[in-house]
Structures are given as structure tokens and as C-alpha cells.
Amino acid sequence: MKSATRSRRVAPFPFKPSGVVDTRVIYCGDNLDKLAGLPEACVDLIYIDPPFNSNRNYEVFWGEAREKRAFDDRHASTQAYIEFMRPRCVALARVLKKTGSFYYHCDWHASHYVKVMLDQLFGENNFVNEVVWKRSGSHNDAKQGSKHYGRTHDVLLFYCGGSHEYTWNQQYVPLHESYVDSHYSQRDEQGRPFQWTDLRAPGGAAPAKGNPHYKVLGVDGYWRYTQEKMEQFIRDGRVAIPPSGRVPRYKRFLDESKGLPIGSVWDDISPINSQAKESIGYPTQKPLPLLERIIQTSSDENAIVLDAFCGCGTAVVAAQKLNRQWIGIDMSPTACRVMAKRLRDVCRLPEDENLWKAGRGFIVRDLQWSADKLRTMPPFEFENWAVIALGGIPNKTQVGDMGIDGRIYPASTATRKMGKSTGHLEFMDVWYPVQVKQKDKAGRPDIDAFEAMMTRADRTKGFFVSFDYSKDALIEIDAFFRKSSKIIIPLTVDEILNEQIARKLA
Question: Which of 45, 104, 329, 370 meets the CB 3.0–4.6 Å disulfide criterion with 31?
Fold first, then answer.
């Protein structure tokens, strides 16, 4: 809860906020509207992962009925999807600096159409790379009897903002053992592995290329380096003629290697699964190392990173961890609350207006916080909002859940393995059920059903959320405690909105 973070001692943010645009802000709403409020050329790096009309079921966990209906209406066809994305990409191109970078994350459904659109908006000459991320094994898609290759990868379309002086921090991956064995087979007098590398001028020996021409260890030729630098290499013992060779070569030692420069095929970052430590159950959650690689490569510390389709907020969490400024936008109130919770829990960044103004926190703008607006939410969206507001985990499914809308895991919970895991955080034995009713007054029948669930699940404490409660409901809660010693804590929406629930959550 926000009230809990205020009592924590928070270190100052190590870099100054932007003087041009507000950063460390999550905006809830249509990104087309929110982007219109940003100044031109103010962002250093943009990453987006917009959903597409695929077989993914976004309603299973998040239950965003309103968003899903609008999504289905807009994206009934590839043409409709491109028409939806084009004005948003225009708006994103407007706020991107000329020295900035833009990444569009997509899959096989529309990547070819998206590239044509982006070529038109950013310019073909500003297309830098198509990056392939292997997100799964073929067995997840190509089943026996199917007539296609396994669809195992996503595509990242990478554009620069117009100037080819965009930020580029080369990243590396460790050298594979087989590569080391084959390329670093030599040993010097101290036993250091090394390989012989070429010193001759690249592209052929021609005076017109401007390569220096002189003799090295008695061998005449065109070389990569000046004669002074080459002589220094020889004094350092880095240049010699190999025993089986005739031309001087350079000793490149294994312990000096940064690794292998990352190429355009990324098969070293595993996707998120239900058992991953960082998994929060979001249907299309991307792994943190994927976003960290993009942010480290294409931005410097204190640069501004924007994700206009934030989802569960992996990009903003990665940006915060890497000391970047960031802006997040998503139309779903649930997604905005989830990413806010991740920032508080993972980054230890407080959600507080005053601390944000002092450069030590973040804020969420334009959330539906009034009780009247919460009454109009789709039921699943309201349930998710209530559970997350309590610091709990919403159920992934709405069937087979014994009437439980979410679970709260106390901070003191000790983990215990219980055989094969059956779902997100199922290995944690101590948890409290949360039941949510979008009613003006929850009645005794609602409480009776919750009591039955608590008895079946053998829970000692549970939380019930509604706008209010009938007198009979409150009497039944008291009677249930006297009869079974099991505690039901009734919470109202107003108590949650006004942050008056700390004593009840204790």
C-alpha cells in the first residue's frame, strides 16, 4: 500500500529529472491522447509491445472486458490494426529525438505490414535492424499433425529517429565453450589462452585506401595500424610471426575479450513462464533481461525511456533499475496498478506526490479512483483493482477458484515445496483469500458462501470487499468467528480509496 511506503527511508534518485517533460509518471488512458500532451522531440528511447488480434486470451487473468471488447472491435483485421497503430506511431515519431531509437515488438501476425508502415513514417534509411527473439521452443506451437513450422520467435523492428548519431552501447554475450576451444587454442609462456588475429589492412592492399605501408619484422605490406603503434605492439610482445606462419600477427588474449557482440538473433533470453521468479501472471509479460538489453544498448543513464503500451510495466521497471528517466502509458487501470505495485515492490520506489516532486518517487495519473467510477467498471476489472489495491494477487482464472477472487500472501510467509507446483505462488502455503462483490451492500448469502469457501480451503483469515454491508452480513461475520475462530475482515471501497485499511490488514 502507498501508506506503507511513506514510512520507509528512501534514497534520493541518483539523476536529475528532465526539465522538459515530467518523468517517472504512469498515465492511465489512451496513448494517443497522452502523447499529444508531450512536447516534440523529448524522448531518447521508445519501446512498444502493442497487442494484436491473435489467439492469446487476454481475458483469462486480467478480465479486462471493456478493453478486450474495444480491442476486438478495432482489430478485426490486419488493416484495422494498422489503421489503429498508424496515428499512434505518428505521435511516437513526433516525440522521439532525432538522436533517439524506436523499437516495435511484434510477432508473425503483422510484422511485415508494420515494417511497411514504419518505413513510411520513419523513413527506410532510418531502419537499423530486425531483431529476432526466440521466445519459445517449437513444441509449444508445432504439434503433431500441424502443417507449419513452429512459430517460436517475436520480431523487434528497430529504427533511429533521423540522425545516425543515435546512442549505441555495444552489448556482449559470453563466448561459447566450443568457440573458446576452437579459437583460443594457443597458449603463451604464462599459459594464457590467445588467438592469432590479422594485422593486414582490411579491404586489400592499395595506396588509394590510405593504409600505411612499411615493413613489420622484415615483412613488407599494408597494415591496419601506424608504424609507431605497431612498434609498440612488438615491444609489448603482442606481435610475432607464428611458428607455422610467414606474416606477423597479433596476439588477442581470451581474458581480455568482452565476449561476443550481440547479433540480430537473440536466443539467450528465456521467456516468462508461470514458475519464473518475476512472473506476475500477465498474459504477454516480457522478461526483464530483454528490456534491460534494449535499454542498455540504446540509451545512456538519465535518458528518457517511453513505453506507450506498458502492460505490466517491464520496460519502466527495467528503466528504473538502470537509472533512466521513464514515462509509462496504458489504457487499463488494472495494468497501471500492477506496474505501480511492481515499482514499489521491485524497485523500492515510493508512489507519492510529494516525494515525486522532490525527485524521489513516482506518480500515477488519471486512474479511476472515485467510488462512482468504480461502480461502472466491468466486474472482473473491479475485482482485479480491489485485490491489487490490497497488495494481493488476482486469480489467473475465474473458474475452478472455489469462489476466490485473489489471495494475499503475508510478508512473513515461509515457502515450502508441496510437490509439483500448480500455479503462480502455489508453493506458498500461508495465504488469505479475497472475495470481491461489486454491490452497494453485500448480504448474508454472500458472507455464507465465503464462509463455506474458507472452511473448504481451511483458511483462518479472509478479506471481503464491497461498497457496504447489510446488518445481517456483519452479524454473520461475528457469529462465524465465535463458532469457528476464523476471521472475516469486511472492507469497503471507501476504506481502500482513503487508505484506511492498514489496521485491518495487520
Answer: 329
